[in-house]
Amino acid sequence: MKLSIPENFILGAASSAWQTEGWSGKKEGQDSYLDSWYKNEKFVWHNGYGPAVATNFMEQYQEDIDLMKEIGLTHYRTSINWSRFFTDYENLIVDEDYAQHIDDVVNALLKAGVEPMLCLEHYELPVYLSEKYDGWSSRKVVDLYSGYAKIAFERYGDRVKQWFTFNEPIVPQTRIYLDAIRWPHEQNTAKWMLWNYHKVLASAQAVKIYRSLGLTGRVGCVLNPEMVYARSDSKEDKKAAEMYDLFYNRVFFDPMVKGKYSSELIELCTKFDIYFNPADDDLSVIRENTLDFLGINQYYPKRVKAPRYEWNKATPFHPEMFFENFDLPGKKK
Predict the structure, then answer these.
(1) Do 30 and 51 touch, CB atoms closer than 8 A?
(2) DSSP-derived secondary structure letter, 142
(3) Which sequence spans correspond to the domains of the chain?
(4) Three-state DSSP state, 126
């Protein structure tokens, strides 16, 4: 049987700067969070292989783009490495060598008939901002990101029409601060929620800036929701699924798509002392600058049931207070 692909169907691929570029040409002081994690915990990376070499896209991008053309890709999404885009993160002094690399990649993709799609942040938070401001804990970093977004839009927006503010913005702080399973292993649920909020605000500010520039493309965000299923139709299991969805999915979907947070989330954050205390002006920015579109990375479903045991009040608040994981018997592996 022969099937034809619809003419306007997007047949693309996606990666990121840190997963492909390698460190060729990287200057002192341009480490990202991923670079720092790799340097500090190389033993957790498979066979010690990580961002230092990656796929050496910095030097081999033309060969890779030629392959994209050969196999018929229509689109390619990657990220700009925020940590390499500047030599001065406070004054937003652009590293012209790296910026030219992005220019070269964009132009090569267009020449090959592959539409470039650029993401502004795929875990490449500069270490400098982590050390000085504690990363996304600081409202200052939101504004520095916004300045970065404006420069990127102005430099590449004439050719790049599809932008993403973040890739999977919930992931780093969930691994680092909520579950403490990734370096530097700091359990801090309030910081987790603050990072969630500041990324939502940064995304909205980037959308606002893009529209103010009169560019003709669109701005979205790549989220990684877990489609959550209750074990049964009991009201207790259904509530467990609702709570999982609220804390892990709707924490980004609601403000980015609807322009506001769920009142239930705000009430729970306040009750458990993890509320992010937004300024009214910032909430207005979120309300007025929702996304144009979404990218969805769907990996697997999430199955939950009502918790069987009382939560240990001596431990920090965690959304797992409201659910237990449920492993579906007989599922295919």
Answers:
(1) no
(2) H
(3) 12-227+291-298
(4) strand
pLDDT digits (tens, 9 = 90+) for 310-328: 999 999 999 999 999 999 8
* Spacing of C-alpha 113 from chain mean position: 27
Per-residue pLDDT reduced to its tens digit, 202-243:
999 999 999 999 999 999 999 999 999 999 999 999 999 999
> Cis omega before residue 169 (within 30°)?
no
Architecture of domain 12-227+291-298 in this structure: Alpha-Beta Barrel (3.20)
Looking at residue 1, its pLDDT comes to 84
- Alpha helix ranges (H) inside 72-138: 82-85, 96-111, 127-133
CA distances from 17 to 102, 121, 168 (A): 10, 9, 14
Q: Which residues of the chain have pLDDT under 50?
A: none
Cβ-based neighbour number of residue 70 at 10 Å: 9
What residues contact 206, with CB distance under 8 A and at least 6 apart? 120, 145, 146, 149, 165, 219
